Amino acid sequence: METATPPSREELRDHLVRTRIAGDVATSRENNLDHYRSLAVRDPHYMFGLTMDGDWTFRDILALMAKSAGVVADPDFRSGQDTIDPDRTIDALEAMGDRIAAALKRENPKILIATGHPTGLLTTHLALARLARRHGAELLTPAETRSFTGGLGRKRRIRYLDDVAMLDDGGALVHTHDPAPMQAMLAELDAAGAERPDLVIADHGWAGAAGEAGVETVGFADSNDPGLFVGEAEGKIAVTVPLDDNVLPRHYGPMTDYLVARVESGS
Predict the structure, then answer these.
(1) Cross-referenced InterPro entries, in alphabetical order (predicted)?
(2) Please, how many CA atoms are within 13 Å of residue 195, restricted to the half-sphere of its CB?
(3) Which pLDDT band, with edges at 50, 70 and 90, does 2 fall under?
(4) Would 185 disulfide with which of 71, 89, 142, 189, CB 3.0-4.6 Å?
(5) First and final C-alpha spacing in the chain
(6) Which CATH number is correct for 9-266, 3.30.450, 3.40.50, 2.10.260, 3.30.160?
(7) What is the reported pTM?
(8) C-alpha triplet 180, 234, 112: angle, nearest 5°
(9) Which residues contact residue 168 at a Cβ distance below 8 angstroms, ignoring those fewer than 6 apart?
């Protein structure tokens, strides 16, 4: 069982800024703007499996990211330090916790958890998997070992670690934006006549593909990954939590404790 005492909101805010999960994050302004331009021209790598109903120009995406994540709103600010507002991070964590708690109150809830950032957010996803099991949820694990061709023709497969889905390349867990694995997982459930998950907890293409398919989805996203925020604005993603998604895994501990406590208080 989780036994850590969760931090207060103010303690968590200080921790997020100190560890650069939020506040002055490692992602540069140049990188953020480059990715916003890429999404505006519909580069599939940044769309995460989502379609976009609105026009979503570069300036639209920047304005959304300023509102949802707290990056600098000024389009003339083109280089240097960009930011994530820690209060927006905490607000979104609380909203995510409420969604998870509501899902866990359903009869025989089915949850699917996946991450495209195993070097960072895996510890948080594993904690949420343990939490879901404690509350009697069934953690779905479709399409295990299903393979895909990734960059440079490398074969990647779906692998579950304690019921959290990731991709591996035969020797290592890999970072991915690819929506195809989640699409394959949902297709396998559909082909078998099985129920789809009541909730997906994920990031990157895992979250985008689930939201696009109409599955209730909550996810984590960095300030240079605007796709899920656009998905949230269009009603396809229920909650997107803004944060640096690749700091040292141990730094996510207090954030995870806060999120778990929020779920427990509402479930």
Answers:
(1) Phosphatase_SCO2771
(2) 12
(3) very low
(4) 142
(5) 16
(6) 3.40.50
(7) 0.96
(8) 40
(9) 156, 157, 159, 174
